[in-house]
Amino acid sequence: MNSRFKVVITDHRFPNIDSERQVLSEVGAEVIVSEAKNDEELIELVKDADGILNARLKINPKVIESMERCKVMVRYGIGVDTIDIESATKKGIMVCNVPDYCIDEVANHALALILCLGRKIMLSSRQVLAGEWSIASLKPLKRFTEQTIGIVGFGRIGRNLANKAKHLGFKIIAFDPYVGENILVDDVQMVSLEKLIRESDYISLHAPLVSENKGMIGKKQLDIMKKDAYLINVSRGPLIDELALIEALENKKIAGAGLDVLVDEPPHRDNPLLKLDNVLITPHSAWYSDEAIAELQLKAAKTVAAVLSGDIPNSVLNKEVIK
Fold first, then answer.
1. Residue 265 appears among annotated catalytic residues
2. 142 partner at 20 to 30 Å CA-CA among 34, 90, 99, 152?
3. What is the mean pLDDT of residues 271-287?
């Protein structure tokens, strides 16, 4: 039987795509996994596609312009910086994400980085392995109930982190340009970005990567951080000016950093961040759990299926296309 629709998965790293095939077969869609090695090969594959599922491959304006039938592009994830939304909007293509998966995982990962840095776990472990049994080099070490976490981006993940951290006794403040300042949200005081940077012992980034906030933490912001403060990033690498961060860390302008994301991933082996003992780096794994992967695949496929069935999902990011 001929399929009514064609859905292309541009790239993925999942063990299988059984859930996508199952969900999309129910609306008469054939799923094709791209093996394209360049734009030209990808264009040939997607030009007659009705839907696109995308992970890390950049979908540029040239590729989008070639799409003749596409109704929807869904990113496997929360951020959609791999898709040129402006070009998709001009073509009348809905761009969607999966905004409600891995919330708990990312918040937990941010909190784990905060706790490891705050208790100097990595330094302690290295000393014991080196034969040193002493707390001398760990001083000073502050009680968490005397410290403040500043959360930049107070969406689902930021609020989840706030709720967890409050139970450990941390004071929480937050900044979000879409929420406002000088108000309480979920019993958290919303403040300006500058106030948050000046007052926080830990700054945790949970903002999406858009043109307005690329490099939002740069030299100016690092210079006004407390010298014993830590910077946490589990969102997107380019939110931070990496060269400015390296300079701040090397010169002990701040205490350290916990990074799950970098500007270049994987990092070049000569990246100075890899050589600093006051930095914790994980391989963009904050989102990961077995359950989160299954949830992501299922929800992304259901979003494509909904559009092909004539429905409008809640996760449409360029709502002007609907109008």
1. yes
2. 152
3. 96
